[in-house]
Design goal:
Blueprint: E1 4-8, H1 12-23, E2 27-31, H2 44-48, E3 52-54, E4 60-62, E5 65-66, H3 75-79, E6 87-90, H4 95-103, E7 108-110, H5 115-136, E8 145-149, H6 153-164, E9 168-173, H7 176-184, E10 188-191, E11 204-207, H8 216-219, E12 227-230, E13 246-248, H9 252-256, H10 258-274
Parallel strand pairs: 1-2, 1-3, 3-6, 6-7, 8-9, 8-11, 9-10, 11-12, 12-13
Antiparallel strand pairs: 4-5
């Protein structure tokens, strides 16, 4: 696979990704990653001219703005630097950016849609959530009542890890089949939309649902010393004066396990290119 890679924007995951690709003998050009001293630092235009361009996970950090620490780069301006039939890969591509690309004759492939990467990312997020909890708690998870809101990939893996540490896990879901699986795994089950009156015993709450679930009145029912960790890309726990403080712990793989996260992205990219 003798290709030139352009790695543009993102966090330490992308910096580590550039090192992995360079270590495999590829020519790598990067932009927007100077903070982590990646290989192949270059101009935006030069990086954008590579055979394969790898954009961040998530692609955007705001409406129409590339997830990049070098400054505000509108995605529409970035896409104008690409050419038709160029391989452009990105993570969590929003409909707006997909439309912008299509209007310019481009195809942006979402590498985060690959199940193997989504599972690896969920595992790293679950591990990071446990690490974050242990760093902020003044007591052990052993015997603690823990609530995991949502039973998707992250919720499943996080519940498993918490139970392995001796926590008493309650997991929530909306679908009857997910509630059945929660009980089958040996956790307590609760319906996500029916938490009113059921929150007074929890020492830690982990949200994985990317929509508002725990509003101020529900937060106020939690013990004041309860640790709230919001893992969702969109806040699921309302910030505000009611109830305990909320830690919004987004993109934990990029912060805590960037090398493993980069390896997972690298593998997904290789699979995509091999399937051409």
């Amino acid at each position: 696979m003798n290709k030139t890679f352009g790695v543009i924007g993102g966090d330490r995951r992308q910096a580590e990704l550039s090192r992995l690709l360079a270590g495999e003998g590829h020519c790598v050009r990067t932009y927007g990653l100077d903070r982590w001293k990646p290989v192949g630092t270059d101009t935006l235009d030069h990086a954008a001219a590579a055979d394969v361009v790898i954009l961040p996970l998530p692609l955007c950090k705001g409406d129409g703005v590339l997830n990049c620490e070098e400054g505000a780069v509108p995605t529409a301006d970035l896409f104008r630097r690409f050419r038709p039939r160029q391989r452009i890969l990105a993570g969590q591509v929003r409909p707006q950016q997909r439309r912008e690309a299509e209007e310019m004759g481009l195809t942006v492939e979402d590498y985060f849609l690959r199940e193997e990467l989504a599972v690896a990312n969920a595992a790293a997020t679950a591990e990071g959530a446990v690490q974050t909890a242990m760093e902020h708690l003044d007591r052990t998870l052993l015997g603690m009542e823990c609530l995991v809101v949502g039973f998707g990939r992250i919720g499943k893996l996080l519940s498993h890890r918490l139970q392995g540490l001796g926590a008493r896990v309650t997991a929530t879901a909306r679908k009857p089949e997910d509630l059945a699986w929660i009980r089958a795994y040996g956790y307590q089950a609760a319906e996500t939309g029916s938490l009113d009156g059921c929150l007074s015993a929890f020492g830690a709450v982990f949200n994985t649902v990317p929509s508002l679930v725990l509003t101020g009145p529900l937060k106020a029912q939690l013990p004041q010393e309860c640790l709230l960790i919001d893992l969702a890309s969109v806040r699921g726990i309302e910030a505000g004066p009611d109830g305990p403080e909320v830690l919004w712990a987004r993109s934990l793989p990029g912060q805590l396990t960037p090398q493993s996260a980069a390896a997972a992205i690298r593998d997904a990219v290789h699979y995509i290119l091999l399937e051409e």
